[in-house]
Design a protein that fits this description.
Layout (H helix, E strand, L loop, with lengths): L15 E4 L8 E2 L2 E3 L2 E6 L9 E7 L2 E15 L7 E7 L3 H17 L1
Protein name: PilZ domain-containing protein
Length: 110
């Protein structure tokens, strides 16, 4: 049985890269992303209650840096030592609408 979607913003699996120096020295790819946040995977456990700032790269466009908060994390069952996590990205509504429109374009191009 399908469960209703709880997200406010549509999510995409397009090519979106995240820059967050406190999480990784290199950019990493979002596994899925919406205008509200993203899910990603790294080889270390993200810290809770840490003041993260992220920049989102969609094609040639960069958005941020914006404050972001760890929403959840869990060790990846099929890949020991890897951590899946979700982050909420804080931004103004106008910026969020612009990002949502850009993400819609990524989905259509994929």
């Amino acid at each position: 049985m399908d469960r209703p979607e709880k997200r406010r913003h549509a999510r995409t699996r397009g090519s979106v890269w995240i820059e967050c120096p406190l999480l990784s020295g290199a950019s990493f790819q979002a596994r899925d992303i919406s205008a509200g946040g993203f899910r990603a995977m790294l080889a270390h456990k993200p810290l809770e209650r840490h003041p993260y700032h992220v920049t989102l790269r969609v094609g040639e466009a960069a958005f941020g840096p914006w404050p972001a908060f760890l929403a959840w994390r869990q060790e990846h069952a099929q890949r020991p030592g890897m951590w899946s996590f979700g982050m909420l990205v804080m931004m103004q509504d106008e910026q969020r609408e612009h990002l949502a429109a850009l993400l819609d374009g990524v989905t259509e191009a994929a």
